Amino acid sequence: MQTFPRKKIELIVESAYLSPMLAMIDATGATGYTVIRDLIGRGRHGERGREALGENSNVLIIVICTPVIADRILEGSQRILGDGFGIVTVSDVQVLRAEHF
């Protein structure tokens, strides 16, 4: 079965950043994204638990796209987040339907 190379970007940000991040992603030409709300986890700054759900929660934004669009999203993310809270990862993935991404 033929697959096609793409980039997967995962952005964990505070929910306050969600709207500007999605507007930026739309402006890059990405064909879509997935948002998962109310993340719970632990990291360098301690635990982020159920008490941070709702307006103060973390969200995960997942985008699968071409390398060119991935670069645009990374640049836009840096502009929006600056030195603020955010975790951004990029992975190489294979997709079955290239036209969707």
Automatic annotation (TrEMBL):
Pfam families: P-II. It comes from the Bacteria. InterPro entries: N-reg_PII, N-reg_PII-like_a/b, N-reg_PII/ATP_PRibTrfase_C. GO terms for molecular function: enzyme regulator activity. One of its GO terms (biological process) is regulation of nitrogen utilization. Gene3D superfamilies: 3.30.70.120. This is Nitrogen regulatory protein P-II.
